[in-house]
Amino acid sequence: MLSSGYVYVLLNPSIQGVVKIGMTTRDPENRVTELSNATGVATPFILVYKEYFNDCHFAEKQIHTYLEQRNYRVANNREFFSIPVHEAINIIQNLKSQQKSSSNEEEYTSEINSGSNDISQLAESMLEEAKDYYYGNDGKLEDYDEALKLFKKSAKMGASESYWYLGNIYRNGDGVNSDLKIAMDYYKEGVKAGWVDCYAVMGSIYSLYPEYKHMENSAKCWSSYFANIANSNMKILYIGDYVSSFLINGWEIDNKSLLARYKNGVIAECEKSIHRYKTRNQDEFTKYTIKKYEQIQTFFKYLKEEYISEFVSGEGVIDNLFNVDGKAVLIVDINKGEFSIGDQILIQGGIMNLKSRINHIEMNRNLVDNAIKGQTVGFMIDGKYEEYGSIQSGWIVAKIK
Questions:
Q1: What are φ and ψ of residue 111, in 5° steps?
Q2: Alpha-carbon distance 198 to 214, whole Å?
Q3: pLDDT tens, 44-54?
Q4: Are 388 and 328 in contact (CB under 8 A)?
Q5: Of 186, 146, 191, whose CA–CA distance to 170 is shortest?
Q6: Handedness of CA 231, 237, 238, 240 (dihedral sign)
Q7: 388: how many CB neighbours lie within 10 A of its CB?
Q8: Secondary structure in 3-state letters for 28-73
Q9: For the whole model, what pTM was predicted?
Q10: 63: phi > 0 → left, psi -120 to 50 → alpha, else beta; which?
């Protein structure tokens, strides 16, 4: 529940070079009086600035985390910061301005220091750094402890994806003791913060984990996931979980038109997973997992053509990816329909789904306007080559109506 109220800045003549930044759901003047009477400081506090927020608890948390990251905090778990008053006010105003802009409220007119840092940008930067430590990317050593710290900080500052990572860390036991309760708490926070993938994970947990088995909650989570993901890219991993949950429980599978966009990608991923598990010791869990992927694969193989054709009017398989003057060029064998310049396409492989647009089509070293079934052509697509570096041969290209 949102707690509307104020974030305030206080000064005290007896404490030089330090400001107190806190929040209250009441009149800040009343809070000043309480603090002045309770702290025993020789002189009373002075209210120098206040700003109203729809969720003052969250706003205070963002500001405190930002200031702590910049080493302004005087002591842990205290609201005192060694920062000039005008800088503290600018930071609060900047956050308020961002929130007004994102909610389409009227433009905020207070002057904002152009040198003040954007809190949301810092949160996203911290999130990316956390991912680098989590995966061991960008020259960093894989370090779950450091990743955990950064994910927690970036979550407090508003990077909603961080909650999904935190949930996964405690669900999988990555550097911590596996704790499904803590994981679920983070996924729930992620949902509140707007990270839709958390619905998908909870949908699976409610249907597959005995200690959390709650089929009504599972159905609600999946319903919320599909309601919120309709205009975005789904992860093939979650599509498989969704279909598996519904097949296991004998439920009617909805959203077939949306699922149809990912038919070939899901089938290919299931084939890989089945092959991988068949090379392991055939214990009960392995046998169960193979059966699960076979069921998912069968469902998609027999998904009616009417659902496929609603979205896909052309399809091909990628042979290769080339870098041409910094642009990505896909070499594609077309096995269905027709592609033309300007077509919107979906690139599928593994758990990846990438959307793009065809800018040029080349066939036998000539530029053409369209290409049809049976031809091998080159598609120059939107964006830079680096954005598509993970694409592999065998991935699917689908033209979306």
A1: -70, 135
A2: 16
A3: 888 888 899 99
A4: yes
A5: 186
A6: positive
A7: 20
A8: HHHHHHHHHHHCCCCCCCEEEEEEEECCHHHHHHHHHHHHHHCCCE
A9: 0.57
A10: alpha
Give pLDDT, residue 226: 83
Write phi, then psi, for 211 (nearest 5 degrees): -70, -15
- Phi then psi for residue 332, to 5 deg, are -125, 135
DSSP bridge pairs for 172: none
Question: What is the helix (H) or strand (E) element at residue 229, kind and residue range?
Answer: helix 215-229
Burial pattern 243-276, b for ≥16 Cβ within 10 A else e, equals bbbbeeeeeeeebeebbbbbbbbbbbbbeebbee
Q: Tell me how far apart the alpha carbons of residues 341 and 364 are, in angstroms, rounded to a whole number.
A: 16
Strand partners, 367: 362
d(CA 172, CA 191): 19
Dihedral (CA of 93, 95, 99, 101) sign: positive
- Provide CATH code, domain 309-400: 2.40.30.10
Find out whether 187 and 200 touch, Cβ atoms under 8 Å.
no
Contact 343, 333 (CB under 8 A): no
Instruction: Name the residue ranges covered by the structural domains of the chain.
Output: 5-108, 118-177, 196-303, 309-400
Nearest residue to 338 via CA among 370, 382, 306, 312: 370
Over range 247-267, report the average pLDDT.
79
Residues 363-368 have a mean pLDDT of 88
Hey, which residues does 360 pair with through a beta bridge? 380
